[in-house]
Structure formats: C-alpha cells, structure tokens
Amino acid sequence: MAAQKPSVPKGTRDFSPVEMVKRNFIFDIIKDVFKRFGYLPIETPSMEKLSTLMGKYGEEGDKLLFKVLNSGDYLSKVKLDLTKAESTKLTSEISEKGLRYDLTVPFARYVVQHLNEITFPFKRFQIQPVWRADRPQRGRYREFYQCDVDVIGSNSLFNEVELIQIIDQIFKKLSINSVIKLNNRKILLGIAEVIGEPDKFIDITVAIDKLEKIGEAGVIDQLLKSGLGSSSVSGLEPILKLTGSNKEKLTIIKEALEDSKTGLKGVEEVETILNYFETLPLNTELELDLTLARGLNYYTGAIIEVKSKDVEIGSLCGGGRYDDLTGVFGLKDVSGVGVSFGADRIYDVMEQLEVFPKEIVASTKVLFVNFGEKEEKYCLPLLQKMRDNGVNSEIFPESAKMKKQMTYANNKNIPYVVLVGESEMEKGILTVKNMTSGEQSEMKFEELLLKLTK
User: Fold this and answer.
1) CA dihedral sign of residues 194, 230, 206, 311
2) pTM of the entire structure?
C-alpha cells in the first residue's frame, strides 16, 4: 500500500511555533483591550444544533454552514427516496448539528439559556474558531478565528462609541493603519422606502454589500435581476457615488430621506455617535460610508467595518447593532451591539507590512549549553532560578557538539547562550554569549538575571 501524502482540507492551515507566537501576540493585545473596557470571556461549543444556526444568516449564510452527520446508522432513519431526494431535505434528516458560522448567534443562545446567571448590560468577549463552507481564496478561509466583543441588554449608543474606541486602540497597538467605516441599517431601509422598494430591502443590502467585489455595474446588474425596476435602481445610484466629509454626506442623505421616518432615525443615530468623537480623539479615521451594508439579516442599527489602508484584503473587523437577536430563542426586545475581529486577516496584513515586533518570535531568552553530566547538574539550579524569576530558559538536553547546540540557539532565535565549563564552575561565574552581536563576556549569575528581568 502506497504511503498517503499528508495534507489538510482546503481553506484550513497548520500553524508553526513562529506563527503561533505571532498569533498569540495578536490575541493578547485584543484580549487586553477588551478587558480594559470591562468585558469578560465566555466560550461556547464548536457544534450547535442546526435549529440554532439555520435562518440567522440569510439564504447565502445557510448554504455556508458545515453540517455534522448524525451518529450511528443515520441513513436507516431516512424516510425519503434517496435517488430522488433534494439535498436540503436530505440534510435535515441526516444532520441535526452544525459547526458554528460565527460567535454572535451562539452568544444570543447563551444569553437566553443562562438568563438567570447574567447581569445586564452583559459585556462579553469570545475568541474561538468558526467554520464556513466558503470557496477558499486569499484572506478567506474555511476555518478561522473570530475575536468577538458584544454588549447586550442596553439600547444606549454609547456602546457603539465604546466599540469604536476599542477598535481604535487595538489597531493602534497592532500598528495597522486603518479606516473605520460606519453606517446604519435604518438609513438603508429608509433609502429602500424612498425609492419605493421596501420589500426588496434584503436584496438591496445583499447587492450593495458586494460593491467592492463586483463593482457598481455588478451591483446594478444584481439589483435588476432581483426584480428592482430600473427607476428604483437609478434612485440608488447617487448613494453608491456619494462623496464628501461625514457632515456633508449626512446633510445630503437627510434631505433625500425627509419622507422616511425610519431613515431619519438612522441619520440621527449616526449623528449622535459622530458627535461623541468631537471631544474623544481617535487615531483611526472614522468615515460614514452609505454603501456599507453588512449582508447579515440580524443587524438593525449601526453597522461598522474596518479596512486596512495599506493592504487590499477585505474587512479586518465588522459588526453592528441587533435589536432582537435573542427573540428567536424566546427573549424579546433585548438589544445588543458587537464587533468581530478577524485574527487571520489581521495576521496576514501584519505579515505583509512586517510590523510584528522582532523580539516576540524568540520565546526562549537564554539557553544553557550542556557540557556533560557534572556541568548539567551545576546548571540546573541556575536554570530553575531563571524560570522562577519569569525568564524563559532551557538547557540543551544532551552534551552534543557545540556546533549543534549553537545551531539550535540560532534556529530558535535565542538571544543569549550561557556556557558553564570547569573553569566557570571554579570561579563561580558564567560565560554569556550575545547571539545577536557575537560578543562574549563573563558575569555572575545575579548580573545576568538582572539583565534579563529588566
């Protein structure tokens, strides 16, 4: 039997130690900022009941759910004729569970299920993988991590302001030059009302959401195919082309939506959020973008998206206000707002821009060379003291040739190597080699420890 070629499914990846150190750098910064704003962590299972997931992401989202086959002889319980069965109907008979598509719907389920244990407003963050049966391409994976931060049980627009501050701080700390785009679903609904197509609201948002992918002509074509009249599409075109400052855009859209109560409410909400930032300075540009639609059906108010200014890769972070996501689980009229950071895309942008700090790759700070049994015994208590003082350190596990041990230190980017032979043991000193400069010096253990813990 021929040996099987090892591989992973398309759209998934292995991560090397170097990659994991960099990924953890991203996660640690994101977690740290979340905690600063008073958010606490939760986790939910990788699998949810399909009844929890289906119908929450729109028709396209439902198609992208990974379904999990029922255990045991799942076909024996199927009542359909397998030769004629539609795949969607068959799926519901052989699969009751699916891998989560995002962290927001499981969060809504969690809130309702644990209602009696929660203090509202409930501020939570969640950093876990999600799965989508998407076509893999650059910046788009089938398995990827999301870093979600949500507050539920409060209608206050101050929550949106705080989320924008969180986004701003995180991208500043990650050294990514970005733009935060802001819109409101009520404005989009108002536009649909003004052009006389409120029933086509979902079709309009799904099409507009693809503007960057398929261009203005593609959006217009999709809108016409979905049944919008040419006069309605013409009414949308000025929105697709709107330019100017945030205030100028708001003035124009306010006039255009004067006959839509819903649309004007959306404008008022955007104005409230933007007014906060007249006294709260941001490092990141905040731009009102009326073409921002976020195709997911559960958004009802503010919608937010973050793009890199230097790398073409799609959204790095996105989210918005949802007024009744918990309603499908029996808890009505509980409003929430949240955003999700795409760690994989953030990683790709940071790699391309080369903004990861050089020192984070070296997990081990110091390596003790192993000269033999006697020297090893002498070094082990010193190694223990290093670790007790928070210094990542190791000793080579055997008395191999010096070249092999030095190559090991080089390959792992270990900045310092300690050599302790008979001479050093007699004098009670260490010979320390700086692997970056190549310099070698003698020092007492306490001196080295102080140097490494500064």
Assistant:
1) negative
2) 0.85
